[in-house]
Every structure is written in structure tokens, then in C-alpha cells.
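tool_log.txt
---
The assistant was asked to compare two proteins side by side. It first ran the structure predictor on the initial sequence, then on the second. Raw inputs and outputs are pasted verbatim so the downstream comparison step can read them without reformatting.
(1)
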Amino acid sequence: MDLGLQGKKAIICASSRGLGKGCAEALAEAGCDIVLNGRNEAVLATTSAALREAHGINVTSIAADVSTKEGQAALLAACPDPDILVNNNGGPPRRDYSELDREALLEGAIQNFVTPIEFIQAVVPGMKARGFGRIVNITSLSVKMPIEGLDLSSGARAGLTAFLAGVCRQLAPHGITINNLLPGKMDTDRLKGGFERSAQQSGKSVEAIRAAQAAEIPARRFGNAEEFGQTCAFLCSRHAGYITGQNLLMDGGLYPAAF
């Protein structure tokens, strides 16, 4: 399927690995020029080179923390007028709510609530002028289904969802869509780290923990970055112009609901 994205410009936050990388690969395959972002310069360079070689598109790499004003400025300087913005950022570490002090609460809110809103504020004027814009926010299954120890991440991402529910309807007349992708248990480094912690705490093997958690998912497997990225690319495509304000779960059926 031709997504109608040839020559479009995309900023993809936290995209040198994991789900962000999956989005970058799918958008590069669709013909977008990419602004790639990560904190590890070596990993960033490897991902950038692979995208250029595989798809022959322009890739600009920005090593920066997108939660900082300096990091945001660097990405926007590299691409002042993106057609596509994929908001993504690591969440606060797993921690019981009772252990969170004011500093930790504010940092989590900046990472997963303030930062994506600031990016949207920066890119929307250009999207309005061109009559086209696609914004995808990578949030989490935890917005709908609490996950122990991720209360701060869940709360900040849920706040972002509520904040943008009105904003997306203001922007729809201008050809701009805002949608949220909610990953469940995806086969990423973050998930693997969780397996290792559970194995240490329980005395079970990592393989046993992995198998038990996969068995809880109706699809009987974990998701992967490739299918996640392809879904993101479709939401950015010309075919998805009538989809906005939606929260798309990608969890293999783990969240049990009819609506």
C-alpha cells in the first residue's frame, strides 16, 4: 500500500532503538526523511546508517534528551517544519507511589506530559500552514490498565491523553490528526529488564518468567517493534486522515474489554 508519505519529513523522538526505532524504520520505508533521536551516540549512528542504506532517505541524527529544552531545540533546528511528529520518551523507573517525592513527580510529568505538549505547540503552526500534519504519541497500555509500580508514568500519560482529547478536535479542520498508540507487552529491552528483575526476585529462570507472561496474552506472544512501527506509519498516512483522537491498543488482546 502506498501511504502517500514520499518526501514527508518526520521527527521521531527516542528512535534509535525499541518501538521508536520501529516507527523510524516504517516511516523511512514509506519514503519519509527522518530526524532520528537517542541518547547513545553509538547506537544512534548504527541505526542512522542502517536506515540510509536500506531506504535511501535523508537521516539526521540528534543525540539529545528530548525532555530538556536544549534537546527539543536541537530536534526542531534539524527539522523546523515536520509533517510528522512521533512523541516518544522513556518513562520513570518502576517505583512504589509511596517512594515518589516532589522532584520525582515533576520529572515524570515533564518526561511524559509536558515534553510532548511542548513539541506539539512547536510544530502545529507549520502543519496548519501546509494543511497536513500527523502526530502520534506513544503512551502505554497502563493508561487503561494499571501496572504496579508505574503509577507516575501511567498518570502522566493519561493526563496527556485527556489534554489532547480537546486539542485534536481543534486541529482536525486543518488536516492535522493526533492519535495515541498504547503498547502492551512488546519484545523490547525494557520488557527484558522486567523479566530479569522478576527472575531475581522469584528465583525462577528468565525463560520461565518470559513463558509465563506470554501465556497470559491471548495472542500467546509479545508484540514487536516492526508491527508497531507499521501501525504508526499507517496512522501517519494519507489514508488515516479521518482518524483522530483515538487510543489504539497494541496488546495482543491482554486488556479485557468490549469498548
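(2)
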Amino acid sequence: MPSRRKTSAHHYIGLMSGTSGDGVDAVCVHFDEDAPQVALAAHCYQPYPESLRERLLSLMVPGENEIDRMGTLEGELAEIFAAASTEVHRQAGLAAHEITAIGSHGQTIRHRPRGPHAFTLQIGDPARIAERTGITTIADFRRRDMAAGGQGAPLVPAFHQWLFGHATRTRAIVNIGGIANITVIPAADRRAVAQGFDTGPGNALLDGWVRLQTGAPQDTDGRLAARGQADGALLALLKDDPYFMAPPPKSTGREHFTLKWLDDRLQRLGRDLGAANVQATLVALTADTITEALAPLGPEEVYLCGGGTANPVLMAALTSRLAIPIQTTARLGLDPQLVEPTAFAWLAREALAGRPGNLPSVTGARHPVVLGALYPA
């Protein structure tokens, strides 16, 4: 299980900028070579300037002049990623040459996992990160899985299985970022494969709606949702989307669950619910789709991570729907906000060791593959 920092070589940096598009989390960690343990040396969070975030969120939805806009943002993000990497190893008291590698997820701006020419695109120029930091950088983790017939997502379940698996109990790890996803890890003694997929919106619509209504970047402490009540008719319209009924493997992103997607359903509803009631309904959508995805998989324990754990209204909604107690991954020793960046540090380690980083049972790939492209220091 996770522990505090070890004094040893082979430290890794993990960078994660999720679908919420609000900033980058950087961790500096050490992995035990003989057991599933990770020691946190340092963590820092670099928020994006508001002007950059506006342009980034806009780029996540199909629009005009995307190539030029992408090229500019890719360089800007890489500079922020590099600065966060330098800061986190400085906080850990380590020099650049003491870091084995950086694992950078990049910023997803498009994810089209279905069709004859499926693709996914993450930006944040890893060549520039390696150049600025002097540290070998591993990035572009998703595309090799897609080349092997997978959806390229979610990728973090392999790390969940490595770190959080239990000998006798089936555990579910629920990550609530902009998009929510689940990993169900069978007890080791049951000899079954892990399962996982994106369940649908996590915080993306919650953040987008409150931003549209109030200008705030998020619904802090769920205050807007707490003033409203979920509307059953709207909830039914939201859940009547083919994605929720599709079998796994499946993954999705902001390009599907947009504010326009929400507005189309509000228009079909044909009445004004008020901002708070819409927000409460979006909480119900996230909570319902997570719990309905978990129900047939039979977990005995549920642990949550991601930004959604900071929303007490969403946490209460999940608690009321699940028949088993829920806790955050802090109970297992890893801060719920740091699970994803730590996962990409781990995926960098696996790539350098030549070990596969995907779970075909999750992504649908034909076989396990080594993930990531190498950018030497």
C-alpha cells in the first residue's frame, strides 16, 4: 500500500491535466520494485490562467481554425508542464538528473474511440518538456492501445489494479474527473480480470453549467446544487443517450457531453427549471450513471478519487444510492486528487521497463502493449 517518501533512486514525475481543463497536477514519487507500494516525495498543482483555460475548453469542442489554435496551446501547456515538473522535483529536494522520467498524460482535446479510423489527441509537447527540464519524458500513452484495437481509455485501471488490488475482496475504484470512470478489481483469489470503462459525465457538465450561470469555474461545495431538486423528467431525457446503454469497452469525452448536448434536452423539456434544479439534476445524472454501472459488477468495497470527491452534494448522492459504504482512496493511503498523476508516473516506469501498461479487458485492445513514446533528456 502507499507509504511516505523513501530515500532511493528511481524517482518519477507524473503529470495529469484532466477533462476539467483547470490545471495540471504534478507528483514526484518512488515505486517499490518488489511490492505494490508508492512513496510520495512531493506534489504541486499549477492552475491555468483563465484566458488559457477559456481557449482550452473552446478547443475541446469542434470549431474553426483548430490547427493554429492547437499549435499555440500545445506550446503554452508544455511550458506549464515543464515548470510544474521542475517545481515538484525541487520541492522533493531532488535534482533533474535524479529523476528517471516524467510521465505526461497531456491534455485531451479530442477523443473519438469508435469507427474505422478511431483516434485520440492529447497536447502538451513532450519534446519541449524534455528540453526544458532535462528529464526523459514519456507521453502519448493512448494511441498504441488504439492501434491494437482498443479505445485508448481508460488507462488508469492498470495502475488501480497494481496498487489497490486486494487478496480476498473485490474493490471498485471510481474516478470522478470531468468524465467519470470505474475500475472493478476482482479479489486476487478469484482469478478474474479487471473491468472498467467511462460511465459518462463526472464534473464536466456540473462545471460547465455553473460557469454558464454564474461565471464561477465550479460549483464549490455543491452550493448551487444544494439549493435545487433533481427533476425526474429532465433526468430521464439526459439518461436517454445511447452511450449509457452501450456495453463496454467504452470511453467518452467532452466532445460528446457538451453544454449543447444539455441545452438540446432542456429545449425538449420545454420548461424553465431554474439554474439550481438543473444543477441538482446533473448531480443525479453523475451519481445514477456511476451506481448503475457498478451494480452488475458486484464490488464489495468502493473507493473514490478525483475532483468530484470535493463536492459534498455529489458524495451524498452516491452514498444514498450505494448499498455498501464508500470511502476515498485516502483510506488506502493515496490522496484522491493524486491518483491520476501518480498513475502516469507509474505508466512511465512500465514503459521504460518494457512492460505493458494497458488492460485489454478494459480498453478492448487485442493484446497487452507497452504504452507511450520516449523523448530522451
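---
observation on (2): Confidence is low (pLDDT under 50) at residues 2-8. The chain has 14 helices and 13 strands.
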